[in-house]
Amino acid sequence: MGKTIRWCGPTGSGQAVKLCNQVLCAVHMVALCEALQLAQLQDLDPNLIVEICSTGAAGSWALANLGPKILASDLEPGFMVRHLLKDLRFVKAIMPSEGENFPGFKLAMALFESVAKLDNGEGGNQGTQAMIRVYDHDQASQKI
Predict the structure, then answer these.
(1) Class of residue 81 by CB neighbours under 10 A (exposed 0-12, middle 13-18, buried 19+)
(2) Is 143 tagged catalytic?
(3) 1 located within any domain
(4) Within 10 A of 7 (CB to CB), how many other CB atoms are there?
(5) Is residue 2 part of a domain?
(6) How many domains does one find in the chain?
(7) pLDDT digits (tens, 9 = 90+) for 15-25
């Protein structure tokens, strides 16, 4: 559990903050996977990307903690794809107009849905860093 306890407002506000957090986590994972794919396309050592970018403006918890897991092909869950998708479905339910003003959210949700379908639906039991599998698959089939 977290160490900081904050009052966020009336009933339901804490849940709303959690949904905002989950959108950030989902979109951060898109950025992380795309940066690692770009490094690969440029014949860069992806470890360099994690090391250098973690210390600058692009640094994030996801980059520092999940970047190394991606590079080690460690897809063990800290937080499962299926749990993130559950939260993203809650976000989608409260969005106006099918999320037209939230393209990052829509992309992240679509990519996580693709991950969840891998391995006959077992991809949802992997950690959120398993999103890299969709990028690897797309690159292999020349969709990127």
Answers:
(1) buried
(2) no
(3) no
(4) 7
(5) no
(6) 1
(7) 999 999 999 99
Count of Cβ atoms closer than 10 Å to residue 91 Cβ: 19
User: Rounded to 5, what percent of the chain is helix, strand, coil?
Assistant: 70, 0, 30
Report whether 4 contacts 86 (CB < 8 A).
no
Residues contacting 140, CB < 8 A, separation 6+:
none
- Among the listed residues 3, 18, 106, 117, the single catalytic one is 18
Strand partners, 80: 127
What DSSP string describes 45-66? -HHHHHHHHTTSTT--HIIIII
**CATH code at 118?**
1.10.1040.10
CA–CA separation, 103 and 106 (whole Å):
5
91 pLDDT more than 70? yes
The total number of residues shown for the chain amounts to 144
- Please tell me the distance from the alpha carbon of residue 98 to that of residue 92, in angstroms, as a whole number: 7
Lowest mean pLDDT among 51-55, 78-82, 122-126, 140-144: 140-144
The residue range of the domain holding 39 is 14-140
Examine residue 84 and state whether it is found in any structural domain, yes or no: yes
